[in-house]
Amino acid sequence: MKNRNSNIAMLLVLALSFMSFTTLKDKTVKVEESSVIWKGYKVGGEHTGTINLKSGTLSFDGKTLTGGNFSIDMTSINTTDLQGEYKRKLDGHLKSDDFFGVEEFPTATLEITSVTGKNGTFNVNADVTIKGKTEAISFPMLIKSNTATASLKIDRTKHNITYKSPSLLETLKDKAIYDDFDLNVTLKF
C-alpha cells in the first residue's frame, strides 16, 4: 500500500510539474491599456492625434514574444493638435472615403506573423489591414516588465488612401500630404 501511495504521489508531482511548465512556456496575454498616437505629414507641417485599440493580445514563449493580434477602432480617429472648427473638419475628413472610410471600414487590424530577437528587444513582422487592403510591415518592439512599445511607419497608399499623394500627383506641390504616417504605440498587459 505504501508503495502504491508513493507511486500516486510521484505521478501527481510529475503532472503538476508538467502543467506548470506548459503554462509558463506558451502564454497569451490580453492588452489591458493602450496608447496609440498617430502623426501625419504634409508639405510645411504635420498633424497629430490618437486612435483607440478595440482589443489586443500578445503571445509569449517564456519571455520571448512569438505573436499577437490587434483590432483598431478607426471611428475613434481624433486630432489633438487642432481645436474648434479646424479639428472637426480634419477629424471628419480623416473618417471620410478620402482617407480611412470608417463607415465601410470601421476596424483595422494588425497580426504579428513572425518575431526575431530576445531579452525584450524584438523585430516584428506583421500584416496590417486598413480599408480591406493588407500590407506586410516590419518594426521594432521593446518589452519591459508588462509594457510593450513600438514605432510603426505605414504607407497609406498601400491601403488605397491616395488623397493628395505626391507619389501619384506630382502637380500638388505645396498641397501634398506625404504617403507615410507614424504610429507610436504603448501597450500594457
From TrEMBL:
Keywords: Signal. It comes from the Bacteria. Transmembrane segments: none annotated. InterPro entries: Lipid/polyisoprenoid-bd_YceI (IPR007372), TTHA0802/YceI-like_sf (IPR036761). The keyword Signal applies. Pfam families: YceI (PF04264). Residues 1-25 form the signal peptide. Residues 26-188 form the Lipid/polyisoprenoid-binding YceI-like domain. The keyword Signal applies. This is YceI family protein. It comes from Winogradskyella damuponensis.
